[in-house]
Write a structure and sequence with these properties.
seven-stranded mixed beta sheet
């Protein structure tokens, strides 16, 4: 394993401590899926948030991450399965999931257009997409993205409008809504 991967795992393991059961409950409520539905958490890291979403919703949550150590940790979480892979070439059959999440992860995806196409491919018709990001038009978000680049992370952030348009081109219709501070959520439905 590369030094970058082990440093990245340590950073993301620490960062995942920010998630709470309340965050999982909010995401579960926003998705509104019946128990037993399948949810893909793209870039879900060590699976902390995925476990909270699974507990709050009764859904089966699969974490997809490119870091082997993160996938190993996520695999041990209750209600969570994990797969090693890249968002731009997902290792799942067509129409495998009822919903897909990118929670504070989309800006780290290297090939975003391919990842959006792959998300549309692995979602069932009518499947939901929830993306939570920070708007790079805000100064605090810009500073965060600059810091992430300085520590070696890939970062390509989009305004809410640009993100919605990218998903629209892949057949996922939705809209972005501003949240608190500089955060926003894109919620879309696969046609």
């Amino acid at each position: 394993m590369s030094t970058h991967a082990s440093k990245s795992s340590a950073r993301f393991a620490h960062a995942s401590e920010r998630w709470t059961a309340g965050d999982g409950a909010l995401i579960a409520a926003e998705l509104g899926l019946p128990p037993g539905s399948s949810v893909l958490d793209v870039g879900g890291g060590t699976g902390v948030l995925a476990e909270y979403v699974a507990a709050a919703s009764g859904c089966l949550v699969t974490v997809l991450d490119r870091d082997p150590l993160a996938v190993e940790r996520a695999s041990s979480r209750s209600g969570v399965t994990a797969a090693l892979g890249d968002a731009a070439a997902m290792p799942f059959p067509d129409a495998s999931f009822d919903a897909a999440l990118f929670i504070d992860a989309f800006h780290h995806v290297v090939d975003q257009r391919s990842a959006v196409r792959e998300t549309a491919r692995v979602l069932r018709p009518g499947g939901l997409v929830l993306v939570a990001e920070r708007d790079p038009a805000y100064f605090a978000a810009k500073l965060t993205y600059i810091y992430e680049r300085m520590i070696g992370e890939s970062v390509s952030a989009h305004t809410p409008e640009a993100l919605a348009e990218m998903f629209r081109h892949a057949g996922i219709e939705g809209e972005s809504r501003m949240g608190t501070g500089d955060s926003y959520r894109f919620v879309g439905i696969r046609k």
